[in-house]
Amino acid sequence: SSMSFLGINYGMGLLLTFFLFFDTLFGVSKSIVLYGWPSINRNRFLIGILTKILILFIPISLALSGALLGYNLNALVALSMYTLIANDAISCYTNLLSIKKKQDYKNKDLIEMLINFLRSLIYSSITSMMKKIKDVPNCDLDEKEDEQKN
Q1: Average model confidence (pLDDT) for the chain?
Q2: Among residues 42, 75, 95, 121, which one has the fewest Cβ atoms lying within 10 Å of its Cβ?
């Protein structure tokens, strides 16, 4: 219910969960196939899971910020969800290819491109707001008070 309050589609969340789970499963399998059992350790696994959970912060923070500020950011939330789904789907396919060919294929990171896009969007928005605030004529109260005294 909290996801629907924030404007995040339940089906998109379920699909993202599906790809996150299978990406983790295929990533562990790839590591075993390419590097053997010693390459699997608890710390690396937990860091990978924590990273995937933290990535979910992107759409949730956008939705929550929009809801609290009174803006409709559903388009950005949907864009971030689609990007996360596409990134994990591509990662699943890359891991499957690596398992099949027994060769380590590198994955293009769409999340990094999304974060850079959001960063530049937020920066340009704040810069334009600051310019608008700067262009507002100042109220010269001190000069008016001086005129009234004279």
Answers
A1: 83
A2: 42
For residue 62 the two structure tokens come to 């956008």
* pTM confidence score: 0.73
Count CB-CB contacts under 10 A for residue 69.
8
**pLDDT (mean) for 53-64:** 83
Using one digit for the tens of pLDDT, what is the confidence trace for 7-36?
A: 778 888 889 889 999 999 999 999 999 998
Angle between helices 74-101 and 10-35 (to 10 degrees): 30
CB 119 within 8 A of CB 51: no
Within 10 angstroms of residue 105's Cβ, the number of other Cβ atoms is 13
> Which distant-in-sequence residues (6+ apart) come within 8 Å of 39 by Cβ?
31, 32
Helix (H, G, I), strand (E, B), or coil: what is residue 50? helix
